Amino acid sequence: MSMPAKSIAVIIVAAGKGERAGLDGDAAPKQYRLLAGIPVLSRTIAAFLDHPQISHVLPVINAGHGERYAALGLADPRLLAPVAGGASRQASVLEGLKALAPLRPDLVLIQDAARPFATPELIGDVIAALQHHDGALPALPLTDTIKRSLDGREVSGTEDRRQLSAAQTPQGFRFGQIFSAHMRAGNVRRDFTDDAEIAEWAGLRVAMVMGDAANIKITHPDDFTRAEHILLGDERMETRIGTGYDVHSFEPGDAVWLGGVKIPHHARLNGHSDADVALHALTDAILGAIGEGDIGVHFPPSDMQWKGAASTIFLRHAGDLVAKRGGRIVNCDVTIVAEAPRIATHAPAMCAVIAETLGISASRVAVKATTNEKLGFIGREEGIVAMASASVEVPRGD
Hints:
Mean pLDDT: 92
CATH superfamily of the largest domain: Spore Coat Polysaccharide Biosynthesis Protein SpsA, Chain A
Oligomer: single chain
Structural class: alpha/beta
CATH class of the largest domain: Alpha Beta
Number of strands: 19
Helix content: 25-40%
Low-confidence stretches: none
Number of helices: 12
Shape: elongated
Distance between the termini: 56 Å
Radius of gyration: 31 Å
Largest sheet: 8 strands, mixed
């Protein structure tokens, strides 16, 4: 049994051109393309820097990608300066091993840059297997029936899938052994498909640990869609924006309802419900974001049950419609335009009412007030206008 490793280095193989994963209009190699807003290579490197057992991470990049790599802006004491790779994956790994040699790590993990989903558990399993074996790799048993063909057109045989597995990375080895194997292999063959094959060729004992179905290698354009599903889930969320506008005139009274708060005033707002112009505008904004028409569709003025009703009922209904779609309200922004009454001191209370009604944090609600500089019907204090916007997240494809 070997002694516990003192240091573990990781080689990230990122020297390829990534042409098969290119999309129309996007010339970036796949390892530098954005995946849910973050470059693939950044995600892959982060997966290992986040693991507590890793001592060093060495990217091996294409000689022509120096500026692309620098633009990632990666910084960590364990992240080594990148080295240029070779003409093949095999040659690139050898360049990485040569660069690590002065550090003399006990173990080395070799990872494809295009596999950004290596979990801490998967990395840990590979490392643990190296306590008893010369090498280790994650692998998944094949579930499809595998056919063999000599000419690519006709079936010439069926493989026993019980003996076959799909190899993944990271593949781990004792550093000295895999370095020696790579040096010797380069003098004999240059078409090894992965490092485990070189280890097998060199007579090393290579163990298999259970792979992860989500640990995919991004190769083709469709793989980016699959990768985003893994990151964000099959019910990926999209953000939608809605806007609302409402106006109510004054009539004799002693208070106005604004934002769910009763404010003393020498008049009231004229309307079928409590005429809360702010909540009406916000309700319309939320309904608009999810394509549900406006407040009048759901609460017709002709329906007497809503006469004098609190507008929080309308707002809560809009919030419930978002929730029924599996969505959530991200934020609300309301602007009230009035000469009087003065609103600014009541804004925190309005935010609290709106937040409670919608079941969100008050930090996601903004209520602002302004005047119309004495212009128009607002300036003549004949009424109040409210404008609102709301952003909601709903499942994509809803």
